[in-house]
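Exam revision sheet. Question 4 asks you to relate a sequence to its structure. Input first:
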Amino acid sequence: MKLKTISSAVIILLSLIFSFQARGETAQEVLNKAANKVKAAKGVEVNYSATTNGHSISGVLKHAGAKFYVKAGGMEIWYNGKALYTHNPSTKETTVVTPSAGELAEVNPLVYLKSYSTYFTPSFSKNKQTGKYVIDLKSKSRKAPAKKITVVINSKTLNPEKFTITSLDGSVTNVSLSKVNYSNSFASSVFEYPKSRFPNVNIVDLR
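Answer key, structure tokens:
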């Protein structure tokens, strides 16, 4: 009787172990690992291209902690953790705002990855891709910066490779990331607006 009880306990334990192994990772666990990789890096540099309404731009993104710098489509953007500076050379103006979470994410898609749990519920997409995790993020409330986001993550490197963003007005933006480098270390000046470079530029402060 005692032997039978021990055998039953062993069978139950093995069943639990194999059940856990078969379960695999959840969408949330995958996103957390990808986000933690970004958060742990001293600096991340990414080449990217974005397409919306038939228009495309490409550029480079430098990201560290809560700060980032973007150069794309002839424009430059600096976020020092408090204020967002956008320089438009065609108008010779630099606009300064205190950005919302949505405004930050529109410029830097890594913000979606790092703070997804605040606004979105993740689940694996029905659209599978070999060697990729495809995850749908559905908004929890009207306060979310987008209706839906689909994130494609490389299953080996955990690097984010694509964001398909359905905005609140229904428009769709596709952002593709390449050459994701986690080994950079940027000087703090990279994320500060360089006033000395633009002595004759009009600064429009909307804060």
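Marking note for examiners. The longest helix spans residues 2-23.
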